[in-house]
Every structure is written in structure tokens, then in C-alpha cells.
Write a structure and sequence with these properties.
523 residues; Leucine Aminopeptidase, subunit E, domain 1; 8-stranded mixed sheet; 6-stranded mixed sheet; 16 helices; 35% helix
Length: 523
């Protein structure tokens, strides 16, 4: 009887925390930090003539060329340019107030060279950021620009849309303009149709990507990532979305992906977006790392800078943004975008260093570090894509290693490939898009580095050496040939340094690169 009473007492003690636990949401506090939307970006309109008032931005190829300046302001502009020694070099800007009937006249230097797509977009982005807190209507002259590409004004408009992004939905003060007036791009007739057909989708894709990356991880987890990305594709033609839950992944033996999520209360997801615009051709497969928060798991990261790990799903977000961009412009290609989503936490069921897990293709991995989780989730995702879609090529995108930042800084993403033709396509897309890559080797010696005495491969090594290359080898080893495969390690590009088309915050690296890569696969 005494034993039974002790058991009852023990049960009552256990019931109290269980009852308290039942009052909590499945995860998190249950209190939403904010319930407002982002300040809206400016709507982009088009006209063939510049307005006579408001704020006007005028590109200047040289200080003496006033051909784009309205006649009412030319005399004053000529004097101001001389007095300020304005050179009209790329990046120069001279602001004049109360001139020629305009509240503000912005002279924006673009240099005297032929402007490519990147330079044109940068022009638009610089004006967007300069006018960020301006309540009045803004106009930007984009006529007769020296350009090496067709429809230059449409690229200027694209750059304005990219540069106008903001994320202030979690602020209770210092928010942006509640009702910003539109921007008018002064451009040849027909530019509006070209812009909406070819470029609006990229702006939408980049907004989706940046918003997903920027969300803090108490608002972002695999299931919410899926919901937000799914909402962006509503009504977009020729797309289909499939989402695998953990039960379905277990049935497919995705032990590598599931090993990452098993320490978290947030279940993993594998999100697949198919876009069909290329008939019966084999698709291009894009697979992104989607770790919605990365503590390192049991191999816990240092505390300094860990808040940035909310962005460890930037590869998956960029894949979703790129497929959205391609679908909205009606790309004549077939694309499969995959987000391998998990949260890496040191819970009581977390994977331990030294554990061995099984991948979807039947091979085994010894887990040396639970902080080498991105390669784990992508290895199973790669196998799934190859089995289901037989892609023409497969490209991984991930904030994968700190080692790539040591090697290349924030100037390049690292490109690894076992197919030279695919590597050349990616390098060309990177150059055209302005999102640079630098190719590095997948050296045969990495096989020895990644060997395990008890499994087919280890997911890391404690020996010093080329960490980014070893991670790429791991992915290559678990991605069956003959599928052309490449991997882009973008950890160094996931910075907050502002550029004309990437305001301070999440850069959204990879959307434009993949958009160009998809173009190279069009029929």
C-alpha cells in the first residue's frame, strides 16, 4: 500500500508539469510579437514624359550632358554642377532643392560607359534608397541611356523595385511611410508591359526570399516557411506544390534529414515546387538548405553571433524566390525547387556526435558534428529529386560552411561541380546577374578526409583543412551519378552590407543567379 501511495504521489508530481505543459502552445510563448504588415513599397508606374513637379531623379553620363534635365532646370543645374565639381561618376549624386519647379532634383551619376543589366538595376536601386523616406511622388528618367542590353528602362525599374524592399513589421516606432506615393519611370512606350512580363516576378521572388530570411525564428519554422512560400504561389500558373511531413520522410528512409530535426519540437518538412514551362524536357532541380534556426545541436555553436542563425535557411528561401520569379515570367523551362527544412536544436532526443544514420539511398553517415547539418538535409533531398524527377542538372545552394568565408570573404560564393558544362553555365549566370561565384575543387583527397571506420562516410572531420571542399565532397558522394551536380556555398554572401539593389538586411543572394541559370535551360 505504501508503495502504491508513493506511486500516486509521484504521479501527482509528474502531472503538475504535464498540466502546465498542456497550457502552452506547441512551441513558443503563444504571444505574437506584432500583428502589422510591412510598410508597402512604392508602386511602379510608367510615363513617356517627366512630371513638372515633385521629386525627379536624372541619370547623368557626364557633367556636361544635360539632355535629360528638364529645360526649366538646366541653367540652375549647369551652375550647380560646376560649383559642386560634380563628375557624374558611377555612384555620385547631387541633390538640388527648389529648382525648376521641383521639390528635389537628384542628379545621379552613371559614368560614361555602356550600362549592362546590373548597372541599370543599380541606378534604379540607388534612387529607391535615396527616396526611401520621401513622402512626395518620385519620378526617374530612364530614357536614352547608353546600354548594352535591350529595354534598359525595364531593368532600371527592376532595380528600383529591388532597392525599395524594407522589413519593419516588427517595429512599433520608426516605421516607414504609411502611404508612400508611387514612382514613375520615364521610359519609352511599351516599357511597362516588358517590365511586368519579364521583371516583376524577380522583385516578387526577392521580396519573398528576403522576408523569409529576415523573420526571427520564433515566427519562422519549417511549417510556417511552407505556409508563407505556398501563399506566394497562389494563382501562379503551371506550378504544383508537394510537401512531405516526417511520417512520409520516415517511410522513404530519409534518416539524414530527420536526424537534424529530431531534437526540435518543430517537425521537419520537405517542400517541392514544380514549375512546368518547358514541355517534356527534363527539369533543372534546385535544392536549398532550409535550417530555420541552427544552434549547432549537441555540437553547440558559440553564443556570439548565434542570432544570425535565423538566416540559415537562406538557400531554401532563394530557391523558392527563383522558382517564383521564373514562373511569373512564364519561363520556357521545367524547374523543380526543393526546400529541405528543419530546425537544429539540442533537445533531449537530439542526434549525438558519434551516431550513425541511414540516408534515403541506403548509405550510412557517421555524425562527427551535429553542426554539420546542412549537408545532411540536402543529401536526402538530392536523392529524392533524382529518384522522382530525373533532372537534367541538380544545383545545391546553402549557407553551408564558415570555411568558404575564410577562403573567399564576402566577394564570391564558392562553386563546386563535377560537371564542367554545368559549372560554366552557373559561372555565366553569376556574371550576368551580378551575384558572383568562384570555382573551387572537389579534390579526390577529400575522400580520405571524410572516411569513417564504422559508416560509409563521416559528415565531418576534426582535422584542419579545406572545410568547404570537404562539405562539397560529402554532397557529391551522396548524390548519385550520372546526374550533373553542382553546389554553391553562399555563406560569405549572406551579409548585411547594403548595395544599390539590396538594402541593408538579407541580401537574397541566389535569386537572380538562379533566374539567369533557368534562362539558360529555356527551350
Amino acid at each position: 500500500m505504501r508503495r502504491l501511495l508513493c506511486s500516486a504521489a509521484a504521479l501527482s508530481l509528474l502531472a503538475a508539469p504535464a498540466m502546465a505543459q498542456s497550457e502552452r502552445a506547441a512551441a513558443g510563448s503563444g504571444v505574437v510579437p506584432a500583428e502589422v504588415a510591412n510598410t508597402p513599397e512604392r508602386q511602379i508606374a510608367f510615363a513617356t514624359q517627366a512630371p513638372a513637379a515633385g521629386v525627379l531623379a536624372v541619370p547623368m553620363t557626364e557633367a556636361a550632358d544635360l539632355s535629360r534635365v528638364p529645360a526649366s532646370a538646366r541653367e540652375a543645374v549647369s551652375r550647380a554642377v560646376s560649383a559642386a565639381s560634380f563628375q557624374a561618376a558611377t555612384g555620385d549624386r547631387l541633390d538640388l532643392y527648389g529648382v525648376g519647379g521641383y521639390d528635389r532634383l537628384m542628379l545621379v551619376g552613371v559614368g560614361g560607359e555602356q550600362l549592362d543589366a546590373v548597372a541599370l538595376a543599380d541606378l534604379g536601386g540607388r534612387v529607391a534608397q535615396a527616396a526611401r523616406d520621401v513622402a512626395a511622388p518620385v519620378a526617374l528618367v530612364a530614357t536614352d541611356l547608353p546600354s548594352s542590353v535591350a529595354d534598359p528602362a525595364a531593368h532600371v525599374a527592376r532595380g528600383f523595385g529591388l532597392g525599395d524592399w524594407r522589413f519593419d513589421q516588427l517595429k512599433t516606432s520608426e516605421r516607414g511611410l504609411a502611404q508612400a506615393q508611387p514612382v514613375t519611370i520615364v521610359a519609352p512606350a511599351g516599357t511597362a508591359e516588358t517590365f511586368r512580363r519579364l521583371h516583376q516576378g524577380q522583385i516578387d521572388g526577392m521580396r519573398l526570399t528576403r522576408d523569409l530570411i529576415t523573420l526571427p525564428s520564433n515566427l519562422k519554422h519549417p511549417e510556417s516557411f511552407v505556409a508563407q512560400a505556398r501563399a506566394a504561389f497562389v494563382g501562379v500558373p503551371n506550378t504544383r506544390i508537394t510537401v512531405l511531413d516526417e511520417r512520409q520522410m520516415r517511410e522513404l528512409n530519409m534518416g539524414a534529414l530527420l536526424s537534424v530535426s529530431q531534437g526540435s519540437r518543430r517537425p521537419a518538412r520537405l517542400m517541392i515546387v514544380e514549375y512546368r514551362g518547358g514541355g517534356d524536357t527534363a527539369p533543372l532541380a534546385l535544392v536549398g538548405k532550409g535550417i530555420t534556426f541552427d544552434t549547432g545541436g549537441i555540437s553547440l555553436k558559440p553564443g556570439a553571433g548565434m542570432e544570425a542563425m535565423r538566416g540559415d535557411m537562406a538557400g531554401a528561401a532563394a530557391v523558392m524566390g527563383a522558382v517564383l520569379s521564373a514562373a511569373k515570367r512564364g519561363a520556357r523551362a521545367n524547374v523543380v525547387g526543393v526546400a529541405a527544412l528543419a530546425e537544429n536544436m539540442p533537445g533531449d532526443n537530439a542526434t549525438r556526435p558519434g551516431d550513425v544514420v541511414r540516408t534515403m539511398n541506403g548509405q550510412t553517415i557517421e555524425v562527427i558534428s551535429t553542426d554539420a547539418e546542412g549537408r545532411m538535409v540536402m543529401s536526402d533531398a538530392n536523392q529524392y529529386v533524382i529518384d522522382r524527377y530525373r533532372p537534367a542538372a541538380l544545383v545545391n545552394l546553402a549557407t553551408l560552411t564558415g570555411a568558404i568565408t575564410t577562403a573567399l570573404g564576402d566577394d564570391y560564393a564558392g562553386l563546386f561541380a563535377r560537371d564542367d558544362a554545368l559549372a560554366q553555365r552557373i559561372a555565366q549566370a553569376a556574371a550576368t546577374s551580378g551575384e558572383p561565384v568562384w570555382r573551387l575543387p572537389v579534390h579526390p583527397s577529400y575522400a580520405r578526409d571524410m572516411a569513417s571506420p564504422i559508416a560509409d562516410i563521416a559528415n565531418g572531420t576534426r582535422a584542419p583543412g579545406p572545410g568547404a571542399g570537404r562539405a562539397a565532397y560529402f554532397l557529391s558522394f551522396l548524390t548519385p551519378e550520372p546526374t550533373p551536380w553542382a553546389h554553391i556555398d553562399m555563406a560569405g554572401m549572406d551579409s548585411t552590407t547594403a548595395t544599390p539593389t539590396t538594402p541593408e538586411g538579407a541580401p537574397g543572394y541566389g535569386v537572380r543567379l538562379f533566374d539567369e541559370l533557368i534562362r539558360s535551360f529555356e527551350r
